[in-house]
Amino acid sequence: MERRRFLKQSGILAAASGLQRFMPVAGPFTINDFANGNIPEDKKLDKNWIKSLYERGSVTSYSKTKNELRYIGMPAGGICCGTVYVGGDGRLWVWDIFNQNQLGAVNKTLPIQLEGFNAKEINNIHGTLYLEPAVNTNALQQGIALIIRQKNDTITKRLHQDDWDEIIFEATYPIATIRYIDQRLPVEVMLQAFSPFIAGDADNSGLPATIQSVSVKNLSSEPLTVHITGWLENKILQYTQKEKTDFKRANTVLKDKHIASVFLGCTTQNEAIKTAADFGNMTFATLDKSALCTGDITTDSKDTFQIVKNLVSPVANAPIAAITSTHVLKENEAAVTDFIISWFMPNASLNKDQLKEVADAASHYYASRFESSTAVANHIAQRYPFLKEHTLLWRDTWYDSTLPYWFLDRTFLNISALATTTSHRFKSGRFYAWEGVGCCYGTCNHVYQYAHAMSRIFPELERDTRERVDLGISFDEATGMIRYRGEGSGPSIDGQAGTVLRIYREYLMQEDDALLKNNWPKIKKAVSFIIAQDKNKDGMEDTPLENTLDALWSGEISWIVGLCIAAVSAGEQMAKGMEDTAFAAVCRQYTAQGSANMESQLFNGEYFIHRPDPKVGKKEIGSYDTCHIDQVYGQSWAWQAGLGRILSKEKTMSALQALWKYNYMPDVGPYIKEHPGGRFYALAGEGGLVMNTNPHKDDKPYGEAKAWQIGYFSECMTGFEHQVASHMMAEGMIEESLVITRTIHDRYHAFKRNPFNEIECSDHYARAMASYGTFLSACGFEYDGPKGYIQFAPKWNKDNFKAPFTAAKGWGSYLQSKQQDGQTYSIIIKYGHLKLNKISVTKLDDIPVKQVVATAGKERISLTYTTNNSKVLITFAQPLLLQVDKVLKIFMSKL
């Protein structure tokens, strides 16, 4: 098979042809560069390639003629509503909306015997879709065709890759723009595929529907008629039908004041069928109320339906609905048809054993808001101008930036995991998620604590999860322990620490301090639980507990120690906010002692290590003297939460430089050949940041244990890589950060696999949402909603910088620029509002500031300011309420 490429003796599938253009331009390397399994210290990266990483570039586009469309699957449904992909040519596929609780976006195994795996088949836990990415696999027939009539000619064109000379897919999540090109046709054709997605509005972003907006423009001098016809097959109960057939599918044409539509349902006398996971209904609709509709394309005599009938393959008891919207276009005239496909599959089928005590887990949140798919379609139709306009506004605001297009893609698009069956909302509104599609239950806190995107884009979901789950369902009142998988688990130490940090982050992402005041006793207990795990009271956690690498490690482990220090530091800040001075002092003493001891006892002169428990030694699994990817993760988290330094800059930088030196490889092939057994998240010919390396060539670097988890140490898992990239960016290692991020981006180039599916232990893995942290670091962004404080400190393009930002109740754009007589800083609110008392910005040169003037709209704002090195803190005399179209502009004049 084309995708099955073996690297001899390693069991690793390797790159064959076509991949060289996507790996970093590096080399040449010789065999000596990799002697004894070494990683080349000199990465030999091409200077011109490095330079290109900083450049704005253009919209990321994939092309049919370059063979880049076949693996594309952009999630195009509402968040927490299942998975529907829009493919590279605009067709919809996967259709994982039927509550099958499957493993992976496509349930796929490969018959391969690999060293380190006993099974003859590997599945999505091991990265199946990384090795052999899925292509358009249709659970039901769906499509759109254009019937173009001009004079005596009639031309039929499907929106299908086989029907066009060229198709260009613009990958601007949450909207895919697809352009269809045939030089012989007198029309310009474009499809925009999306579901409503508005940052800060989880309800309007969580509609079980997908939209296909087709626009056609007449490029000829003669009028023409275009019939835009879409079709959708009724496959309700498509899985149940394998066992039961006592039901009948039926499509019904509906007319409504808002839409023309067809209802796709089924009837049965068997009440048990109505409880099936794939029981429900769908609606196919258009906003064109004059459109022609049919419930069965095979029986309708209208000519457009007869033409399209030849494009489908009807089967018994699966009628195909169709809708035709007709436009007569003059020269240069354009028209748009908006199709809506909505679904209503209320019988959620998440693991019954794990959720048997959770009453509201049996149904979806959208089923508490709507009574049918038609109600969903009508909801969208009635609000369509707002929903479409603001989805486009978010897309345009996100990409209206001086940051590179590729960088904006890779740091944001992983939030699309929320629009897959990785993510769910129960009937009560509770957010619940797998780690990856169908894999590892319970919104696992030692995975989700890496993921920064949802908190910044949908803060209401994260806040609710902190209060309802972490400080509610999962909380142990006696000890302050937070169960790491909701109802069904015990403690994990990194998850506990990360969740305390998330509580603090969610507090910062609100306009008031209600989250803190309402939950302080529990938060205090949660912080105290962390402190209590320090058995020898040296400020370094040393109790063996579960962690994200799925084992109990003994000893003092730098990445866990540092993460606990960061969490207790957050505890100190929250204690101050509650005026609990005694507990703030306890936290301060712990962090001061822990930081000092971590630097003096866990730093080997180059990087931070894992010191074994002297009573246990190295009998158990651990990272010990190796160079571990998360070794300064606590400091990384501290930057994300605005906590400042918890470790010295000198030692932190040394550790990050060691990760670059020992763990980053422009080509992981030679390394994984010497270290087989890991899963497949980077292949020969591709670059990556390896989890653990053994610079000192210890004979038993990971202890005596023959543990399966050791396989993790040779892998490249994107969530961990993004975490390091965000930290490097925050510390000023901009080039290294961009290289790592671009390396991941290139691993997921559409020529090779689905750009929207970063894989780790199944598809659309939640940890990959750590990528958003790199964007925040690039902007130098900090926000404290209760205090009305915001900061921007861009890492490059400082003299002319623009980027989006989100806050508690609104979002917009931040701009800064340098002029001859001074510097200008602006905030433009595009949606909602921003309450602001203080703003911190960075001077763009070393010339002292003479004066600071601020205006909000036409009103001049009274202020004071202080300077600290390059930072300028501006405090407004009265709180500002910035709303849409009211621009805050600050001008700093020079001496």
Automatic annotation (TrEMBL):
InterPro entries hit by this protein: 6-hairpin_glycosidase_sf, 6hp_glycosidase-like_sf, Cyt_B5_heme-BS, GH116_catalytic, GH116_N, Non-lysos_glucosylceramidase
GO molecular function: heme binding; hydrolase activity, hydrolyzing O-glycosyl compounds
A matching Pfam family: DUF608
UniProt superkingdom: Bacteria
Domain Glycosyl-hydrolase family 116 catalytic region: from-to ranges: 494-771
Domain Glycosyl-hydrolase family 116 N-terminal: 73-384
UniProt protein name: Twin-arginine translocation signal domain-containing protein
One GO BP: carbohydrate metabolic process
Listed SUPFAM superfamilies: Six-hairpin glycosidases
